[in-house]
Every structure is written in structure tokens, then in C-alpha cells.
Give the backbone structure.
Amino acid sequence: MKNQAENWQQGNIIEFEIVDVSDRGDGVGRWGDRAVFVPDTVTGDRVRVRLLRVKPQYAYGKLLELLHPSPHRLRPRCIVADKCGGCQWQHIQDAYQQEIKRNLLLQALQRIGEFVDPPVAPLLSGLDFLTYRNKATYPLGVSQVGSVQAGYYRKGSHQIVNLNQCPIQDVRLNPFLAEIKLDIEVQGWSIYNEKRKQGQLRHLSLRIGRHTGEILLTLVTTDLQLRDREDIARGWMQMYPNLVGVCLNYNPHPTNAILGDRTECLAGR
């Protein structure tokens, strides 16, 4: 116990097995009678972890090494899954994801709803546990060489992981990412800078009707008077047959809220 007490400090490295998954999606291990929450892990993983935020009865840790992988673990299909904050469980097999989610629902009903034996059926699953996302909203940024970037933030930061496709979103949205970024760059529209509170374009949003295949593209901007905005929108409509509308959402406020209250339709509906 003395050795465990000495190791229970921020920055120390400990080894243990992940025994559960929390309601926030992090793996949970035990160090003596204390809980350690570790992102990017799953039940059955044997891990080496650095303690980060340490409290008397629990801590948050960073995965340093996977000593022995869980049977529920798989190789993520996305090459930036370990960096991107756009999704959380690509390393967990679909069947076990369903089991985790069902157990979380059961625990919530029992703990909060005070149901003794809630009648929760097994979760339903699609044909593919990827490609399910029918809406994607990407913050925009600029690389060190000046090219326009779009992607999700790195975990725990506001640094953009630049994407040209995403295995989580509907595959019919993938062709838009690289082309729209290039068009924005060629057009010369400025990209909003969070620190300086300057620039025009903040986000690129894509939404698809799962059954119709109709796509809506929305640019979130601090400035409605983008140069040649209607011409560019009509050009996109001609380029992409399933694009049925191009909109401009106005959000001039220095806030983390993505959308503002005002939206204009530049082309289509």
C-alpha cells in the first residue's frame, strides 16, 4: 500500500488492466481502491499509463503503451484516429460497442431512474458501424504554408487535423472536402483566426439526406459580403449533381457556438 501511495502522484507511470468503460467513453482501470480513467482504451487492455490529473480517489491518465491488447480491440480504419477528436471508439469492435452502450443505458436507468430491472433490448446496428454520420461540420484553418484546411480538432485542443475524407461520414460527402477547400483558397476568402478574431470563413458544414442523397452545403462566416459568393455557389451546384442548396450562415460573435441566427440561401434551396 505504501508503494501505491507513493506512485499516486501526477507524472508517475503505472501499469494495470482496463476493467470497464465510463459513461464518457474512457477506459477505467483500478489502482488499489482508486479509479483511473484512460482515453483510447477498452475493457481487457493491459496498459502502461502516465497519471495526469490526480485526485484522492481517482485520476485521469494518458496511454503510453499497450502492453497486451483486449480481444475487443481492432485496428482503426482511419489513419488519424489516434489524433483526431471527431470520434472516440474506432479501436473497439462494433459488437462490444453495442454492449457498452446498452450497459450505460441500463446503469443510467437503474441509478437515475431507479428502475430495478429495466427491460432494455439489445441495440440495433446498421450494416456498417462506420459511414453513418449524415452531417459533418468542420472548422476551417490555414496551414503553415498557407493552404486552407478543414477537419476536426485534435483531442483536447483547437488544432485542426486536416482531412480530405472521413470514414465516419456518409461516403457521398467525401468528394466535397478537398475540392471545396481548394476553391475557397483560389477564391481568396480569408479564414477566421480564433486568437486574432479576424477573418471571414469559420466552418464548412455538409448534410445529406440518407435516402434521397440530396446534399446541403453551408459556409459559416463572419462576413455576408463574400466576393462573388453567388457565382461560386452556382458553380458548385453545377459541379455536384446531388448538391441541392448552398447557404451562408452569419456568425460574427467570438464564441464557440458554430451557427449564428441568420442564414441566407445563395443557390438552390
